[in-house]
Amino acid sequence: MLIDRITEGLRDPELAGRLSRQIHDAATRPLRLMEVCGTHTMAIFRHGIRSLLPAEVELISGPGCPVCVTSAGDIDQIIDLADRPGVILATFGDLLRVPGSDCKNLAEARAEGANVEIVYSPAEALKIAQATDRTVVFPAIGFETTIPVIAATALEARQKGINNFKLLVSHKVVPPALYALLGDPELAVDGLICPGHVSAIIGEKAYEPLAAKFHIPCVIAGFEPMDILSAIYLLVRQIQDGQARVENCYGRVVSREGNPRARAMIEKVFEPCDAQWRGLGAIPGSGLALRPDFSDLDARTAFGLVFHDVPEPKGCRCGEILTGKVKPPQCPLFNTRCTPTRPVGPCMVSSEGTCAAYSKYGGL
Amino acid sequence: MSTKRILLDHGSGGVASRELIETIFLPRLDNPILSRFEDSAVLPASAGRLAFTTDSYVVDPIFFPGGDIGKLAVNGTINDLAMQGATPIGLSLALILEEGFPLADLERLADSIGDAARSSGVPVVTGDTKVVHRGKADKIFITTAGVGMVADGLELSSRLARPGDAVLLSGFFGDHGITIIATRSGLAIQSDIQSDTAPLHNMVAAMLARKENSIRCLRDPTRGGIATVLAEIAEKSQVQINISEEALPLRPGVSTACELLGLDPLYLANEGKCIVIADSASAQDLLAIMRATPEGRDAALIGRVAPLDAGVRKGRVVLRTAIGGTRLIGSLSGEPLPRIC
Ligand code: SF4
Does B190 touch chain A (CB under 8 A)? Predict the structure, then answer.
């Protein structure tokens, strides 16, 4: 299969050892790199990449998990809809344990009788809609990677005239959040490991103004261990040399231009809006909403929902976790009141979240 | 039968119930104990101790590549007995059917249950059927219980792993979990991947017959996968279990599907595999015994048990990754996976 062939050589222990030694040699002072993307966070844990790095190189996890950054207000709306008779809420599984404002989550709502179905794709949700006369609501959560698929599903629903399929849109886009993060004077990050899949859509060039404005090196990486190690090596080299360029070590998937067709698909269905990020607050232009001519697909319109901004869970330091200021063990709730089975904050909720990864795998 | 679907009458205990059992189940599960139709089955028992287990099956979809909910219910309970070293004697079979469930599907499942019982040599000796209103259950739920005999002196437990022991796995892992998830998500996976549901009692009997004294623990890594079972053993035995990613038998297709779906295969369910912790002096012999059986054809040595490092207080599992890194393996913590068994 395709992936088997592609990954050949990308998991070679000898190559990994060599890269690890090169990173050891290149890093002569302490430096901190942020992996923007949650899938990188998982890959770094899964392959034990930290154990191959010198003590000087610290990896911190950025805001890269779409579920993590979904605000409590959005979750409240999702739970509200799931509770309504005549609605089936079809969702990706990792949303189930995300707490809303009163700490209630979808899993509990389901136990109390809400109609929640776990699906693995929006197409599966559309299929459910075709087989029922109830209204199927799909919470559209995700970054540039997921958005084209959901846009395609919206177009398919329209084309097939499936009127009982609605989207509850909380999409977010990555670049505005990076601007907001990097503008924080307290943020102590020396380089960015930029997401692979998101970059496949937005392209290398999306990072160029960012690298210039904040004088920060950006390297786009794939998800194989060798991709990540190469990116770390390139970042260390740039930082040591005082450079701040965009480099791409995921050329087999990411081009300079990205994927204009996917972007056109997104633009056809969605338009930019301000969005509330859990832990980060409101970021202008960082969200996507359905265009007016797709409002018939909008669950908020269909059910007359209004958004209430709700404060972050008490004691949770997710905001600082996401900006790389603290690590999970520094949060007083970590592994005490907040655990993978009973998460308080979003970073514990997602299996890709920083706190969950720390709790499950430790810092090893 | 005149109707093509299950009606509430079929669970009433009256004529329709009797007819359902007589036309669908008795011919397929036929054995002298079941056909006596008494309130309970009376089984012959040999010397030793009794192992007794029960499990419910709610898998969705009910038919999937490599098996179905019926086969799963028979094999799963046989395996729970086998993991204690028990020789299975008989199973119970209780069905909860949703009103409207197609009789053709019930017949197909009864065929499959009959086949599984016959080929494993473990009869279904007692059973029950109930029907609930449409919407009060999802198609069919099955509960099986099983009894078996354990030889005196045999003790297998997750508490018995010792530093130096070998960790064996009876074959490719993750097949069942990925099959169910892929079937549900409509993801096309390679045709060589299907549920691994299989009874393990014959393989276990062969292992115990020759190596009883070197086996410390047998576990079938169903829900939570091999990661969760290994973490449990490490914790209960207060040891470190070191496993090697390279030694783990994982089909390329399963690995690919996991990448696409963002899943860790170590946490995927298995329905016909077992983890063996054994004295390392016997590891090669045990591998040979396992590999000589169809269920254990692809058995592999996947790791070793080590003492806890100084300062570490809790048992843990350390994976040496393919690229030479290391990481800790935790147990599954309530990931909202769909119904897989
Ligand atoms: S441990 Fe929990 S409460 Fe603390 S920062 Fe992480 S997610 Fe938030």
Answer: yes
Ligand 1 pocket test, pick from A65, A105, A355 with the greatest ligand atom count within 8 Å of Cβ, gives: A355
Which positions ≥6 away from A32 have C-beta within 8 Å? A58, A59, A60, A188, A189, A190, A191, A324
- Residues A195, A339 within the same domain: no
Q: ipTM value of the model?
A: 0.72
Checking if the pLDDT of A3 tops 80, the result is no
Verify that A260 and A343 share a domain, yes or no: no
The number of beta carbons lying within 10 Å of the beta carbon of residue B154 is 15
Residue B31 makes CB contacts below 8 A (sequence gap 6+) with B123, B124, B125
Exposure string (b/e) for A164-177, b if CB count within 10 Å is 16 or more? bbbbbbbbbbbbbb
pLDDT digits over A141-186, tens only? 999 989 999 999 999 999 999 999 999 999 999 999 999 888 888 8
Most informative mutation of A347, A350, A354, A360 for ligand 1 (most atoms within 8 A of CB): A347
Question: How would CATH label the architecture of B166-329?
Answer: Alpha-Beta Complex (3.90)
Number of CB pairs < 8 Å for A and B? 99
Model-wide pTM > 0.90? no
| Residue A296: Cβ within 10 Å count | 12
The domain total for chain A is: 2
For the beta sheet containing B124-132, the strands, ordered from the edge strand earlier in sequence to the opposite edge, are B49-57, B140-150, B87-98, B124-132
Task: Report CA dihedral (B204, B209, B212, B215) to the nearest 10 degrees.
Answer: -30
- Looking at the fold, whether A154 and A75 belong to one and the same domain comes out as yes
Alpha-carbon distances of B304 from A78, A358, B155, B228, B288, rounded to whole Å: 47, 25, 21, 16, 18
- The rounded Å distance from CA A234 to ligand 1 centre is 31
Are A103 and A150 a contacting pair, CB within 8 Å? no
Q: What is the pLDDT averaged over residues A107-117? A: 89
The closest-lying atom of ligand 1 relative to the alpha carbon of residue A335 is 1
Give, in degrees to the nearest 5, the angle at Cα A282 between A280 and A287. 105
Peptide bond just before B61 cis, omega within 30 deg: yes
Q: Are residues A250 and A273 in the same domain?
A: yes
Q: How far is Cα B260 from Cα B251, in angstroms, rounded to an integer?
A: 14
Q: In terms of residue numbers, what domain contains A163?
A: 1-315
Query: What is the rounded distance in angstroms from the CA atom of residue A288 to the CA atom of residue A271?
Result: 5
Same structural domain for residues A76 and A148?
yes
> pLDDT value at position A351?
65
Ligand 1 is surrounded, with C-beta below 6 A, by A 316-318, 321, 328, 331, 333-334, 338, 344-345, 347-348, 355
Distance CA A294, CA A150 (A): 13
Given the CA of residue A321, which atom of ligand 1 is nearest to it?
A: 5
What percent of chain B is predicted at pLDDT more than 70? 95
Architecture of domain B8-150 in CATH?
Answer: 2-Layer Sandwich (3.30)
- Determine how β-strand A191-194 pairs with β-strand A165-169: unpaired
Question: Does residue B77 contact residue B155 with C-beta atoms inside 8 Å?
Answer: no
- The count of residues in chain A is 364
Same domain, A246 and A188: yes
Distance CA B327, CA A49 (A): 8
